[in-house]
Write a structure and sequence with these properties.
The chain is of the alpha/beta class. The protein has a single domain (9-195), classed as 3-Layer(aba) Sandwich (Rossmann fold). Helices cover 33% and strands 24% of the residues. The protein is built from six helices and nine strands. The protein has helices at 20-31, 50-57, 73-86, 103-106, 129-136, 171-194; strands at residues 9-15, 37-44, 62-64, 91-94, 113-117, 140-147, 157-164, 198-201, 204-207. The strands form two sheets. It has a seven-stranded mixed β-sheet, sandwiched between helices. A two-stranded antiparallel ribbon has the order 8-9. Helix 1 (20-31) packs parallel to helix 6 (171-194). The longest helix is centred in the C-terminal third of the chain and has 24 residues, at 171-194. The structure holds 5-O-phosphono-beta-D-ribofuranosylamine (GRF).
Length: 213
């Protein structure tokens, strides 16, 4: 193992939807002995999320923490935090997790929570980024992977990739092409975090060069 990777980082993945980004991450890890991390749990706010099913098929530990099972958001977030913390992750990846997390959750993993978002932030924050970009008439949109802070889709940007908008794009067709980009970008950024290659200076994320073995 290279000197720059002291140990395998434990990764928790949070999903709300189909889980194609989760699958891309799992495949990237499986294909790369130098990835430096392993997924130790997949957690969802949606008990029927496709992402949980993808994890079950691979015999990964899963947990569902539905908002409706708790009296309020604060209680839900306490339960979510406890569930994730049980698996002692070093890194938390939001792979299509459609809930906002507060300091209550984030303080447990400072600068170690990553999110993927289907636009070129800071344009088109929020849950309808692809629809909003189309409605605005942009000719280029894309994907952003960023560190998560308390504001929605706001934290320091790790990497971005452009996706041109086609004249006949629908929300579904454009989102499919953006997801294809996310499937490369998110695992690449998770690997950088696992290998301790990100340095954060204010809003700027520096990517450190790979140390030679
Ligand atoms: C991704 O486009 C992600 O950026 C957004 O939700 C989508 C999740 O897709 N927040 P999937 O569940 O990984 O297929």
């Amino acid at each position: 193992m290279p000197a720059s990777v002291p140990s395998m980082r434990r990764i928790a993945v949070l999903v709300s939807g189909s889980g194609t980004n989760l699958v891309a991450l799992l495949e990237a890890i499986a294909a790369d002995p130098a990835f430096g991390g392993e997924v130790v749990v997949v957690v969802s706010d949606q008990p029927t999320a496709g992402g949980l099913e993808q994890a079950r098929r691979r015999d990964l530990p899963v947990a569902a923490v539905p908002l409706a099972d708790h009296p309020d958001r604060a209680a839900w977030e306490v339960a979510l935090t406890a569930t994730v913390a049980t698996h002692a992750p070093d890194v938390v990846v939001l792979a299509g997790f459609m809930r906002v997390l507060s300091e209550r959750f984030l303080r447990n993993w400072p600068d170690r929570v990553l999110n993927t978002h289907p636009s070129l932030l800071p344009a088109f924050r929020g849950a309808h980024a692809v629809r909003d970009a189309l409605a605005y008439g942009v000719k280029v949109t894309g994907a952003t992977v960023h560190l998560v802070d308390e504001q929605v889709d706001n934290g320091p940007i790790v990497a971005q990739t452009c996706v041109p908008v086609a004249p006949d794009d629908t929300e579904a067709s454009l989102h499919t092409r953006i997801k294809a980009v996310e499937h490369e970008l998110l695992p690449a950024c998770v690997k950088l975090l696992c290998r301790d290659r990100l340095r954060i200076e204010g809003r700027t994320v520096h990517v450190l060069p790979e140390e030679l073995p």
